[in-house]
Protein 1
Amino acid sequence: MTDANGTHAANGSANGVNPEKDLGAANLPGRRGEGGEEIRVQRGMFGADNGGDTSGYGGLVRSIRLPGAATRPYGGWFDEVADELEGALEEQGLVPENAIEKTVVDRGELTFHIEREYLLAVAQTLRDDPALRFELCTGVSGVHYPGDKGRELHAVYHLRSITHNRLIRLEVSAPDADPHIPSLVSVYPTNDWHERETYDFFGLVFDGHPALTRIMMPDDWQGHPQRKDYPLGGIPVEYKGAQIPAPDQRRSYS
């Protein structure tokens, strides 16, 4: 492109970039920083620790981290929600620092990590306080972090305020040795089947649930299939009379 003086103007097309479509970093997902807590170092192809890297490159190492606590100000309406929640807990005679383990702001999202014995009180406060009004819990997701010692099992609740058009998360952890978390069905009845599914797949026991039974797997199924320590068994191949070995039992090529 040339201007009125005949000078060639530099633009994206000179190097094959369309400035109207190629926004570079703006098109990439948010990246997690180097801070926070390292819970695992993943090595090898696809996280396999026993080899399996057939590329010849042995430096496949990735640090798995959980985001750390944020510092004030959190930004936007996050501070307003945090202040209102802490104030409402104090009005009930509770100490916010005892109930809220940490507050995380990561990739533009707000998560309160709650001590499990305070989960019911915090959830009811978030639902009922007029300044908060998180009327809807869209479900609970289970997560298994074997490297997060003493807090291997996590339950993550997604709360929506229709009144204020806001979305936050509550996260609660429990050790493998004591996988009990209070049920929120009494506060958010729609959590009924979500808690059953999380129990079914992760083994988290929701105390106070009206009927905590399996919902996807057969009642006599052994184990919880979405845990990372769940054995990956082979698949019987009847027409060959053979069995495909589990991934951790296959031959290593490294």
Protein 2
Amino acid sequence: MEKNRKRERRRVPTNRGSDQSRDHVQETDLHHGAQPMQDWGRDDSTLSDTRGQNAQVSEDHAMRHEADTPELHGDLSVNQTMSPRMLYKVAREAQIAVNLAREETRILRRKYDDLLNETEDPEISSQQGPPKKQELMDVGSELQRKIKHTKQLGQKFLVTSMLWIHDPVNTFKTTRDDQYSPLGRFENIEQKIQGQISEIYANTPRELVGMIGQDWFVSAFRDGMQAQRSNGASRLRACGNTIFDCSAADLKTSEARRNKFLNKIGWRMNSKGHSAFSLWNVEVLHADYSGKFDVNKVFLNPLLKVVLSCVIRGPGSIVAMKKGMPYEGARSTETLDVKWGLQHTTPGMVACAAILARWVLSPDSILKERGAQSGINWHEDFDNYLEYLEIGLGKRKGSVLTIFREWDRILFPHTTSGLGGPLNDEDREEAMKEAMDALNQDVEELPPSDQEHDDDGGVIREGNDLGPGESDNGLESEGEA
């Protein structure tokens, strides 16, 4: 009997405890794991701080787990007199205690690492003794400010530069190549990554440049991109009927969009007789579409500018933009173009608007790099549009310069830094020329001979102008002494 009891004591708690441990570890790993990239474009109108939520979920899970379990006794020792039931209970309580401790350690470790990134300063590390509580609070507050700023940088980057990033983890760790040329940016994946990191550095303020490779910066930047992509997609799908002059029912379901708009977003028969989505023979990209790609009309469909305006200035701008009227937003609202300091149209803006316009009308329910329903590789299409615009600008192609001048004329009419060059205001220039011609033809009058002049010909004093208290004979007049 004693031998059987020992066998039970060895067998019962081990199997059950191990299963419970594995289940718990798998569950907590789900809480702490990074969100898969393919889920970033989900149709969700609520901006979310994904990583912040993950941390909160972990803390909430630990608190619920602790509340739902019986109070753990301080003495978890075992002895030979314990029954199998009691041994199992002790083993279970011990495993729960270990899991809760592991959960708490993970949370504290992550918080410690964030603070450590901020305090790795020679002056701070040379000080003796632990930092004061107030100093830690100040460091935490400063870190939160930088995280918020970095998320905003990610949001702006998505609209002005790139909808998606190739190899996002390694991009932020990549060393910039001094030999990199923008004209070779799209030759291979290595050059694409160089183009990405160059733009990230160019759009990051000096105080954050040294932190680009740190984990918290990467997480915050990518979270900002994800939030902006999700919010922009949801907003445009909700406002699509106003932008594209259709009914809400036409955009409501994937099947409805497939039946209504397939041809508008490039569904064509290719040279081999197979139907597929064309990259360039797309109606929604062209002004006055003639059924084929036109270098002088592509990216000039006025609705593309309305799409971008809806993203950076809100749905309230749609009607005004379609009527050709300026829109500055509500007085109580600071629109994104103001918050981000946008001054002119960028290649990323045009490419972004082109992809979003096509996606809104597509069968795809969620904006991902590759459409689940359409099969369109949206990321690759974006790269192709961006390459076309970047190369055209670099080589000063007239059709591409016209694109940027036209977009700036509508979206940023007062820009002085447009990539297509200064905007032409023919009426103003003509009126100014007429006024200056008239001024040049006007008769010049010589000054009277009794005026005194300075070296530049300016009048110092008229001959009969007297100073205060002076008379013609240079003496003070009566009553004014």
